[in-house]
Amino acid sequence: MTEIEPFEVHLPEGALADLRSRLERTHYLPPTGGDRPAGLGGPRLKGLVEAWLAFDWRAEEARLNGYEQFTATVRGHRIHAVRVRPPRPARRVVPLLLLHGWPSAFTEYLPLADALAAAATDELAFDIVVPSLPGFVFSELPDGPLTRAAIAEDLHELMTAVLGFDRYGAFGGDIGGASAGWLGALHPEAIVGLQLIHPPFPADDAAQDDREAAYLDALAEYDEQDGGYSMMMETRPDTIAAALADSPAGLLAWIADKWDDWLDGGLAAVEAADLFRVATLYWATDTIATSFRQYFDWSFNGPRPAVAAPTALLLSREPWLEGFPRSLAERAVTDLRSFETAEAGGHFLGLEQAASAATAIRKFFAGLPD
Known about the structure:
By secondary structure, the chain is an alpha/beta fold. Helix content is about 45%, strand content about 15%. It has one domain: 3-Layer(aba) Sandwich (Rossmann fold), CATH 3.40.50.1820.
């Protein structure tokens, strides 16, 4: 097995002092959109910057270091992860990956990990692994293109060769959820089950009926309104990264704009510390550029085979998922066990609704064979 090295978070004081200095000298511009939304800037950004300046990183760092963390070499590069072991013996223990997306970090899933640990029973518990995806915060990029399949292979090696699990499950959305879908296609024999908040699309996603056509048309229209950030990162990631790596206020605006759009209820749906935690980690590790890599490498992603592992869809409440047809999921997944929409929770459902997500996870995995 690959050697595991214990890890503690410690951001250099110089990086934190530089962050404070730059935030204090932020140059603000008035909003340009009038009564139309034009992004996140002006007084809203100023309020966020002032709150970030009051954020106590060292207290947060001490809290993070209360979790067991490690790094290990996986397929030639270092991967960081948190592990939350079962708090009590149980008849059945399911190893479980919790997989974040963008713009986020491993910290997104710590509340859900805590909720799952607190809900452990004599019958069922989880051995939870929360990795930093390649290029995010404390995990290195691979040498080759960062595709969803490449991330899946990293995760599989982490769980099997590094941690020694024969079979495991996964929960997540966005990049992490898409990579979990590849796990279910490439290594179904190793997957107990997958629970995804963002549905996999079939390799042939051409509309098969009127409902699918209406949904795909609405999705294209939504992307016209929301997709500018993605196009920039797919085509000119170094250009925008140069600005964000120089201005923490700009970095915060870039991240917070998407959180505000994608959270179920906007930024008010989570604690401000959740946002500042991620922004501080991106800034001090200088990984905003590497977090863009999976966008820039998007063209290297080939068609994904059908997901063969048992799969449950717990769809988040995001505008682009409204009206998502079950038929699309049924063409992407050969063993679809459930299809439902969460009562609450958006793009970061595991953070926004940790308790209800934990309940849904327990229900799904309790119904699967050992």
